[in-house]
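Dear H.,

Thanks for agreeing to be a second pair of eyes. The structure we're designing against is below in token form, covering all 397 positions.
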């Protein structure tokens, strides 16, 4: 199945020239404690929504305003493609919490070199693996998609003449970027029963029409282990799944209604951005952004970044570290990310709370910056921190 085409960045329509780019207001920057780098954001829900790169002092190093056309941009970050530095982002439309658009790979001149169409924004991550036949490096993209399908939902209070309601099937795909071939395809409906959901049909996800299909699963991230298995995060089941890369079966669950593991002294819910930090067989270390809230069910506490350790043999999970928000009482209903930096620092994007922060390994807050007011509509699905060596500083392309 071939998914990509090649276009140029300049083929996008232009935004209105009257829009102004957002600013990054730095509130804390502890000298000597902050790791050097630049902040990658894609603010959304405010005028000037586009991909941006900021210095740690808040200066705009790159503005995508005027070149990304209409629609949302999410998940803007540096990535490696063809063994060289590139940039990745998703661009499209967002409805009821999920998207339909294109995943784009751009070169250092910000020209699009690869497009993967008709995908959702919740995951777009390039992974490299070795071809066992010739030993060459293979670039693969991890992608998500949301599709409304009909199912019998009468058990969930959605009666009709045919007992058919509408539910969203979340899918994971891994795509070989050289051949365009889909090398892995996984369906939530094929493997996760509807009754695992903690979010029942309601309102915009009421399940009675295709437009307002029940989002029972809501996939929020995908990562892959060295073994070839996948780590899939579902925020509406509050569960992290290990999925077999061979047959798609679920190997274990962390959290939710049917957890394989006993969580020792911590909890999480409605999470985003689950990443594999270390895989030592029976000991697996994961990072995640714990939203603790999803707008449909009551808050379960404050949002936070977490690093957890799983003992697969003992079926236990313990909290190694927790990173708290820059202010108490915040509610991050959507988005969020946690990125491990050199020397063990972490960069956290707070999703629907318009902040990006950095913390030392022991949890101390050493950097805090915001790109909107608390309670405003400003939002960045994820935030990243990395060196910037691409476009000439302050040039708008």
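And this is the sequence the design step returned. I haven't edited it by hand at all.
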């Amino acid at each position: 199945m071939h998914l990509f085409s090649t276009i140029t960045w300049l083929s996008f329509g232009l935004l209105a020239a009257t829009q102004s780019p957002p600013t990054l207001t730095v509130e804390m920057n502890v000298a000597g404690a902050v790791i050097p780098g630049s902040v990658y954001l894609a603010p959304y829900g405010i005028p000037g929504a586009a991909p941006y790169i900021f210095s740690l002092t808040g200066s705009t190093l790159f503005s995508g305003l005027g070149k990304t056309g209409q629609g949302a941009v999410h998940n803007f970050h540096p990535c490696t493609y063809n063994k060289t530095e590139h940039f990745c982002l998703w661009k499209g439309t967002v409805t009821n919490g999920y998207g339909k658009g294109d995943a784009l790979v751009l070169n250092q001149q910000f020209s699009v070199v690869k497009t993967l169409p008709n995908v959702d924004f919740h995951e777009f991550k390039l992974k490299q693996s070795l071809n066992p036949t010739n030993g060459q490096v293979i670039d693969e993209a991890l992608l998500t998609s949301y599709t409304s399908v009909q199912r019998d939902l009468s058990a969930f209070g959605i009666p009709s003449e045919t007992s058919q309601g509408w539910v969203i099937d979340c899918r994971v795909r891994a795509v070989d970027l050289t051949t365009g071939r889909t090398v892995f395809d996984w369906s939530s409906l094929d493997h996760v029963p509807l009754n695992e959901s903690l979010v029942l049909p309601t309102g915009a996800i009421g399940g009675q029409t295709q437009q307002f299909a029940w989002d029972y699963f809501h996939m929020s991230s995908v990562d892959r282990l060295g073994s070839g298995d996948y780590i899939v995060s579902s925020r509406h089941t509050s569960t992290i799944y290990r999925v077999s890369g061979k047959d798609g079966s679920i190997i274990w669950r962390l959290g939710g209604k049917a957890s394989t593991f006993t969580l020792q002294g911590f909890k999480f819910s409605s999470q985003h951005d689950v990443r594999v930090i270390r895989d030592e067989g029976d000991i697996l270390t994961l990072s995640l952004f714990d939203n603790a809230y999803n707008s449909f069910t009551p808050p379960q506490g404050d949002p936070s970044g977490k690093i957890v350790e799983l003992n697969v043999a003992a079926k236990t999970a313990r909290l190694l570290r927790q990173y708290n928000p820059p202010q108490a009482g915040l509610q991050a209903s959507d988005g969020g990310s946690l990125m491990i930096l050199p020397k063990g620092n972490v960069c956290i994007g707070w999703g629907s709370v318009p902040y990006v922060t950095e913390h030392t390994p022991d949890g101390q807050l050493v950097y805090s910056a915001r790109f909107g007011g608390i309670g405003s509509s400003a939002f960045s699905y994820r935030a990243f921190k990395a060196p910037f060596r691409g476009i000439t500083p302050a040039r708008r392309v």
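Two observations from my side: Residues 188-191 form the longest helix (4 residues). Residues 223 and 391 are 29 Å apart (CA to CA).

Warmly,
E.
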